[in-house]
Write a structure and sequence with these properties.
- The chain is an alpha+beta fold.
- The protein has 2 domains: about 15-90, Beta-grasp domain (Ubiquitin-like (UB roll)); about 100-165, [2Fe-2S]-binding domain (DNA polymerase, domain 1), CATH 1.10.150.120.
- It has helices at about 35-45, 100-105, 115-130, 135-145, 155-165; strands at about 15-20, 25-30, 65, 70, 85.
- The strands form 2 sheets. A 3-stranded antiparallel sheet has the order 4-3-5, covered by helices on one side.
- The relative contact order is 0.15.
- The model is unreliable at about 1-5 (pLDDT under 50).
- It binds FE2/S2 (inorganic) cluster (FES) (2 copies).
- The site of one FE2/S2 (inorganic) cluster has 12 residues, from loops.
Length: about 170
């Protein structure tokens, strides 16, 4: 008995032309409307600093800045991020000079495996840009959406304290 021939037809997925402004540079790309900002950054633009952790808004590893605010890029669609400046960890250093938040993390040994670190750095940067002298409570509240499985929290707090009042 012969089997019926299969009629596997490829399903065309509609794509949308969008433009993202990332780290001061405009990128034109075509994406499925369902593509997350995290996937667009990592897979289309090859900016892999933002990390896929939970992919459901619970760990903060995917944090980037959108219009200066720390956001979970796994929860945003790329198509809805076209009108605001996006900053990833790759955009913080200037030439060979690290951002002060990056430098403070190094000086205070505020990381172990480093998987959470891009998100931690960007969340702290956003906090310090809107509040130059945060209290410990304000730092902890702002950072509460960034999980560190290595438990580097005391040293992250030390880095944050050291940055208070410094120009960013
Ligand atoms: S990967 Fe986005 S919050 Fe965990
Ligand atoms: S340094 Fe390893 S998860 Fe934070």
């Amino acid at each position: 008995m012969s089997l019926p021939s299969s009629h596997s037809s490829s399903i065309e997925t509609p794509q949308t032309a969008i433009e993202l402004t990332v780290n001061g540079r405009a990128y034109a790309l075509r994406v499925e409307p369902r593509r997350t900002l995290l996937d667009a950054l990592r897979e289309d633009l090859h900016l892999t600093g933002a990390k896929p952790g939970c992919n459901m808004g619970q760990c903060g590893a995917c944090t980037v800045l959108l219009g200066g605010e720390a956001v979970y890029s796994c929860l945003l669609l790329a198509v809805e991020c076209q009108d605001q400046a996006i900053t990833t960890i790759e955009g913080l250093a200037r030439d060979d000079e690290l951002d002060p938040v990056q430098q403070a993390f190094i000086e205070h040994d505020a990381l172990q495996c480093g998987f959470c670190t891009p998100g931690q750095v960007l969340t702290l940067k956003a906090l310090l840009q809107r509040n130059e002298h945060p209290t410990d409570e304000e730092i902890e509240r702002a950072m509460s959406g960034n999980i560190c499985r290595c438990g580097a929290y005391p040293k992250i707090l030390a880095a944050a304290r050291a940055l208070a009042g410094r120009p960013l």
